[in-house]
TrEMBL record:
Its main location: cytoplasm. It comes from Salegentibacter holothuriorum. InterPro entries: GrpE, GrpE_CC, GrpE_head. The keyword Chaperone applies. Residues 29-55 are annotated as: Disordered. The keyword Cytoplasm applies. This is Protein GrpE. Keywords: Chaperone, Cytoplasm, Stress response.
């Protein structure tokens, strides 16, 4: 089938419009590229005096230097902060491994107090205190918790809840089952507590 003259004329007009649109787009792209390269509308680079060119180059180098310097300062600050954090918690594994030994000493002392042998109690207390002081000198601290303190889920670990023996202990700590410890500002073992309801 052959196309009639009207269809052919419309196709030619559409093609002409498409060509014009493509030409306008090409010119716009060329203008943007020339602007990026510092060329004027005729496609020529504007002439800069040697002094202006040197000033422009110097400004670019200053900008690069300032960015590099700022990046280096951020790097130094970040690594020194990480190093301090590492030093504070470097002993964490050793301290965590020593906590059960400390708990055993506490239990042994409680049982010895029940037996009443003063010489044995005194000897074990000396060893216990020496161990606690050594660990304390390395940054280990007990988390202070006692009966009647308010329960805080950020600091305490509730293992059970029992009816409060007194009304004032409702919602508060009734008993401390296991002592908690922190190394520096970081809690390495949360105190295990019983709360009242």
């Amino acid at each position: 089938m052959s196309k009639n003259k009207k269809d052919i004329k419309e196709d030619l007009q559409d093609k002409a419009v498409k060509d014009q649109v493509e030409d306008v787009i090409d010119e716009a792209i060329e203008e943007v590229e020339n602007d990026k390269e510092g060329k004027d509308a005729k496609g020529e680079t504007p002439e800069l005096t040697e002094e202006e060119q040197l000033k422009e180059d110097l400004q670019k180098e200053k900008d690069k230097f300032l960015r590099l310097f700022a990046e280096f300062e951020n790097y130094k600050r970040r690594t020194s902060k990480e190093r301090l954090e590492l030093f504070k918690t470097a002993n964490q594994e050793v301290m965590t491994a020593m906590l059960p030994v400390l708990d055993d000493f506490d239990r042994a002392l409680n049982e010895l107090h029940k037996s009443g042998d003063e010489n044995l109690i005194h000897g074990v207390e000396l060893i216990h205190n020496k161990l606690k002081e050594t660990l304390k000198s390395k940054g280990l601290e007990a988390v202070e918790v006692k009966e009647g303190d308010a329960f805080d889920s950020e600091i305490h670990e509730a293992i059970t809840q029992i009816p409060a023996p007194k009304d004032k202990l409702k919602g508060k700590i009734v008993d401390v089952v296991e002592q908690g410890y922190k190394l520096g500002e970081r809690i390495i073992r949360y105190p295990k507590v019983v709360t009242g309801k």
